């Protein structure tokens, strides 16, 4: 059974940093497309970042480039998102998702809340 469990969210001041995690079980994250997707209050889902470590590929939405870094710990089967220089507009519920070859998502975690506020 595939399970994704996010953690590490919280309240951080503008300009601060936070690292969120997604512990995966039931499959190998290093052999899959793994995504971070967020939903800000009152808004729809927004794709944030993707990684496929087997193909040495990462991608980011323009608004987080040079501030966020996606990575995988293969030994622990955990997906990370390091977020630096956080802005109020980064406030959202962050989900990790397992991608499909067709470009969609097959499995989601429950989300972790990130709030950027002074």
Entry summary:
This protein is an all-beta fold and 118 residues long. Helices cover 0% and strands 53% of the residues.
Gap between N and C termini: 40 Å
Query: How many runs of DSSP E, i.e. beta strands?
Result: 11
Instruction: Spell the H/E element sequence.
Output: EEEEEEEEEEE
What proportion of the residues form beta strands (DSSP E)? over 45%
Largest sheet: 7 strands, mixed
Low-confidence stretches: none
Which structural class should the secondary elements be placed in? mainly beta
Question: Helical proportion?
Answer: under 10%
Quote the average pLDDT. 96
Number of helices: 0
Computed Rg: 13 Å
Question: What overall form do the CA principal axes indicate?
Answer: globular
Features:
globular; 7-stranded mixed beta sheet; 4-stranded antiparallel beta sheet; 118 residues; 0% helix; mainly beta
Explain what the structure shows:
The structure is a single chain. The chain is mostly beta strands and 118 residues long. It has no helices and eleven strands. Strands 2, 4, 5, 6, 9, 10 and 11 form a seven-stranded mixed beta sheet that branches. Strands 1-3-8-7 form a four-stranded antiparallel beta sheet, with no helix packed on it. The N and C termini lie far apart (40 Å).
């Amino acid at each position: 059974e595939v399970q994704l469990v996010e953690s590490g969210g919280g309240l951080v001041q503008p300009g601060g940093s936070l690292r969120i995690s997604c512990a995966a079980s039931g499959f190998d994250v290093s052999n899959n497309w793994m995504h971070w997707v967020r939903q800000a209050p009152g808004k729809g889902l927004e794709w944030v970042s993707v990684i496929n470590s087997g193909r040495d590929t990462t991608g980011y939405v323009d608004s987080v480039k040079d501030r966020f870094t996606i990575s995988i710990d293969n030994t622990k089967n955990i997906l990370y998102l390091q977020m630096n220089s956080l802005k109020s507009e980064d406030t959202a519920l962050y989900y990790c998702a397992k991608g499909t070859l067709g470009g969609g998502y097959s499995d989601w975690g429950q989300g972790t809340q990130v709030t950027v506020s002074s």
